[in-house]
Amino acid sequence: MVYEIRAFWEDAAVDHGTGSAMGPRYHATRLLETKAMRRANAVTTICEGLRRDILARGLPANKVTVIPNAVDVERLQPSQAADPALVERLGLADAEVIGFIGSFYNYEGIDLLLAAAARAAVARPKLKVLLVGGGPGNERLRAKTVELGITERVNFAGRVPQEDVGRYYDLIDVLVYPRYPIRLTEIVTPLKPLEAMATGRIVLASDVGGHKELIADGKTGFLFEAGSVDRLTDALHDVFDRRSEWPAIRVEGRTFVEVERTWDRSVANYVQVYDYARKDPTSRAT
User: Fold this and answer.
1) Both 124 and 168 in a single domain?
2) Closest to 198 (Cα-Cα) out of 76, 44, 23
3) Are 206 and 229 contacting, i.e. CB atoms less than 8 angstroms apart?
């Protein structure tokens, strides 16, 4: 048996509001999953942050392999020219567009993005925000735009069919991923920044541990101090002021995904894991 860890159940429950930190259920879930990992022949996980936590539970290093998140590079091609009809419908003509594509969970920090956009717009009157997706934070974020007085600058596109997502990436100059610095974001790498890099978009992300495993600051994207509206505002200005560097960063981001984060590469990495698991004599000993 190969056991895969993409996040920890107990941490996800806390961050989604369905569990409490360090309560009885938290500890019980953690204990049960640790037992499952010990009984497995091999364990895989998606990033170094999760691997460090797993090893701290006493699993031997040779039993735990990192096989990172990957994307379909055939489906996610470098962005094409934006669809004029979609640009017109969303009111994005002649705009500097920043955006987010994903699920609207509180830890994603989309409220920080809105606050920074309100500040940056004072000096950048063409700045607009496109939010694609949905989730528990949807209504709270809509209320935030009213509070900030930027409803006319923010477009909530809602959830879109998977086959149309590329058309929305084409509309956005800078994809922003402002995750808050919490346990989940520090140890887990997200998938969406990889998708953005695959489409040749410019990525601006908070410097939580999960993002730092994906993004080389100034080379494949940009990082800013997590949790700070001031730093995100400054970073937005800086990124747009460095437009001359964008072509090279787009190429580097796409190359990173093509070389390191494809499904073909992930599948190939599993071969040695299954070979190890088949030969492992100790899995049922604990």
Assistant:
1) yes
2) 76
3) no
Q: In whole angstroms, how far apart are CA 66 and each of 1, 4, 40, 46, 61? A: 16, 10, 16, 5, 11
- HSE-up (13 A, CA, CB side) for residue 225: 6
Do residues 239 and 233 touch, judged by C-beta distance below 8 A?
no
Distance in angstroms (rounded) separating the CA atoms of residues 134 and 132: 7
* 110-120 vs 229-241: helix crossing angle, rounded to 10: 60
- pTM metric for this prediction: 0.92
CATH of the domain at 102: 3.40.50.2000
Regarding whether 220 and 165 lie in a shared domain, the answer is yes
Model pLDDT for residues 89-121, shown as the tens digit of each residue: 999 999 999 999 999 999 999 999 999 999 999
Together in a domain, 274 and 188: no
Counting the structural domains of the chain, the total is 2
- The answer to whether 173 and 96 are in contact (CB under 8 A) is yes
What stretches of the chain show up as alpha helix (H) in DSSP?
A: 9-15, 24-39, 48-55, 84-90, 110-120, 138-148, 165-169, 183-187, 192-198, 209-212, 229-241, 246-260, 263-279
- Residue 193 structural domain: 84-260
Asked if the structure places residue 79 within a domain, the reply is: no
Same domain, 96 and 163: yes
Could you tell me the two tokens for 18? Answer: 């369905």
